[in-house]
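@channel sequence for tomorrow's demo:
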Amino acid sequence: MKMRSFSGARAQGFSLVEMIAVLVLIGIIMGVVAPNVLERLGTGKVKATKAKLAATSSKIEMYALDVGEVPQQLQDLLSKPGNAEDWNGPYVKESDLKDGWNSEFVYKAPGEHGEFDLMSLGADKKPGGQGNDQDIGNWE
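structure tokens (generated this afternoon):
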């Protein structure tokens, strides 16, 4: 059996110009696609935060029905405070008390908009803002 040698075959690869062209094309695609993807990601976190606010507000109301008043702080939903005779919790998990950006909800009792205010400060974690940085409250 005779062995063939491939040493005569020329190895082929990409030229520098072809590689640069591919990188430029990838850069253009990322420039168009990335902002849309990031905007959708932010919109998803806003929707998730609104859903968590609604669910946690319901748990606060459930606590109030059991105990007779809204909790003084959100931690009262996790562990029984000393003055809560008919506490029937825990009412939430620790992760339920955080928004879509993994920041703790802001809670005030009594609230400015009702018996209690529960809110997220948005993506920027500062009061105010627009778009994904906008504050989200349970009164909206």
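heads up for whoever presents: DSSP finds one helix and three strands in the chain.
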